[in-house]
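Hi V.,

You were right to ask for the full record rather than a summary. Here it is.
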Amino acid sequence: MPKILIAGGAGFTIMETVLVMAIFSIATTYAVGIFVKSNTVQKRTANVQQLTADARFVVEVMAREVRMGTIDYDYTGYVLPLDGPQTVLAIKDQDNQPVRFRRFAAAEDRQAVQVCTGDDVFCSLDANWTDITPDNLTVNRLNFYIAPAQDPFSWQLPDYYSDLQPLVTIILETESLASAELEQHLSYFQTTVSSRSYQR
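Predicted structure:
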């Protein structure tokens, strides 16, 4: 069998050279595959983290307003009885100004969480509402559960209606609008927030 000579007289046969090249090719193919897969996983993880952070931001905006304000029990848009799920959250901020949150069709294929700071007449116009969700998310579900069902600070003879501090449970389900399956992601959030305002 012919030998490839190396300085010093020793050499490799063609069969040995082909075998080494085959092993090297297989090892390189596996290494490139692992690199591509890890890069894909890293991109997906970064995308999921960003989408989750965006959805958390929306929940935190609503929760902060509830904490700093009071629930507007006089809002006429609630579905009665109030102990069921609500699609609009009406609160009054620390300056006693009305703030409303809702889910609304911001585009043909996208639902968004919107906020309006104004009275019912002002908020009756869709143009006065502002999206607080980024364009890469759609909101599949937004519900508010308010407890107690009646204003605990209103006077009901012989005492106040309830001794409970008002609570709002916010349930938010978001989905990414990415077209690639790699970037699609569902997020579910639920938090219960208590108003820090005490009015007795």
